[in-house]
Give the backbone structure.
Amino acid sequence: MNSAETASFWEANAEIWTQLVRAGYDVYRDGQNTPAFLAMLPPVAGLAGLDIGCGEGENTRRLARLGARMTAVDVAPTFIRYAQAAEAEELLGIDYRVADGLALPFADASFDFATAFMSLMDMPGHAQAIGEIGRVLRPGGFLQASILHPCFCPPYRKVLRDEDGAVRAIEVGRYFEATDGELESWCFRSMPEEQRSQFRPFQIPRFHRTLSGWLNLLPAAGLVLEELGEPTASDETVRAYPALRDTQAAPLFLHFRARKPAEPLAKFLSRDARIVQD
């Protein structure tokens, strides 16, 4: 599946997706992924940031409220239209644009940091996307991203429960099988059943890679891995968001931060090798 085809699926999802996330049905985002992501994020006040795959802009607005000067892009015009409307209501100085993460319309070294909240795994060219991020980052800048955990959310995933409904384990399969646009029919499971029947399921293109497949892309883009995160829900969080109980058995998300060295990567790595030898 190519980039234009992928964009067409997200544009088809965008109208209803925006309505439902703004109604509070994306409990995995609101209850776990975004709070854990922001807890791991370095200070961004005063920095120029790029949010890639911003959707309707909720997380971009959170970054702007932390003091970052934000630009944000998404392939779906409807998402950008909703994000721009939110900017008009609350002026945060965010520049929203329709753009493809595989061909960012920015000059080299334009940004101090980049974020990608659950968007990189929805792009058909992971290496190209991360390479583009490496290009637009300034030396010393960083990328922080969240993706579906490739180990615990491969193309086959099933939550196993005891007779009383308690989560016992996560069953996974097809881990080593790369997918390139395999469509998944999906909906927000936190929606009441009677309301869920009113909406057609979203069609989500899946682009699965292994954990090593993801992490090996970073040095190829001139980036150095800095931190990993595998959020799990606390008991308090599960009481507020019962659906998140499955993340106590195994993580659903993987967070990673990688930095573009202030000096060329080859020089950076050779210097580290000398330090180890010493």
Q: What stands out?
A: DSSP finds ten helices and eleven strands in the chain. The first strand starts at residue 48 and ends at 52. The chain has a mean pLDDT of 94.
